[in-house]
């Protein structure tokens, strides 16, 4: 069944020119000491909930009360190709913008639309103390906060307070995410970063999660007017839980299929229970209470991750 496009891609043309000299990247300085907070949308061009949030904040004229605030639309070229009739096509142009974040790749000889944009954004990322990178997911699944492998990221996710599920992981084998770049991935650095997966790309609820996450991120850093933040933020939210990713399940045959129509965050009660079939081979839960993270039952590709598995960490 095709997924409904409930969200409308905003017109970003008014945000192209900026005060930074880099198109679609806006920095505001409060003139007072404080951290530099950066919120990024459109890391992937078809993940429009974050773009809706930044568009609204810019139109409302949000300014920091302390430190600096940067609002950045990342993969504008992919976004420009967004077509509601073919919405999956505009994730990126040449390569995944969120797999190039190492000095070796950024300083290296390769060229692509995404590398050019990453090189433009890099000085802002280098200067930022705190990053919120807003994403959404291919298939309908509850929202999750991806906080990376470090304790400081886990603490930050609990400080922001939503979504309910926090996923601690080590990223992807095919390249480094912005979330893990430089000081964000260094336990001795005070820098910190979060990546929020707000829900399915085009569902109404994803916009709500993106809006709430952004305001909570900014309120926690104390860089915006507290009363304004309190007006926007839903006070009553469920307690959070931490899930630590233990492994990725890679589909090794074209006939990989899940045992049930999983949509994410299901808990498989017993070690040995069958999660999926990869050809004739069962994929079994490696331990009790195994959590399925972002399965892609309708989009499994041979050689790529079909689902990640995680353990719930006792509070
Ligand atoms: Zn994404």
Description:
- With 315 residues, this protein is α/β, with parallel strands linked by helices.
- Helices cover 23% and strands 24% of the residues.
- It has helices at 49-60, 76-80, 103-107, 113-127, 151-160, 204-221, 226-232; strands at 25-29, 36-41, 68-73, 130-137, 144-146, 165-168, 192-200, 241-250, 257-258, 267-268, 274-278, 281-284, 290-293, 305-313.
- It has an 11-stranded mixed sheet with strand order 1-3-2-4-7-5-6-8-14-13-10, sandwiched between helices.
- Helix 1 crosses helix 6 and helix 6 runs antiparallel to helix 7 (226-232).
- The longest helix is centred in the last third of the chain and has 18 residues, at 204-221.
Short account of what is shown:
This protein is an alpha/beta fold.
Topology:
Elements: E1 25-29, E2 36-41, H1 49-60, E3 68-73, H2 76-80, H3 103-107, H4 113-127, E4 130-137, E5 144-146, H5 151-160, E6 165-168, E7 192-200, H6 204-221, H7 226-232, E8 241-250, E9 257-258, E10 267-268, E11 274-278, E12 281-284, E13 290-293, E14 305-313
Parallel strand pairs: 2-3, 2-4, 4-7, 5-6, 6-8
Antiparallel strand pairs: 1-3, 5-7, 8-14, 9-11, 10-13, 11-12, 13-14
The structure holds zinc ion.
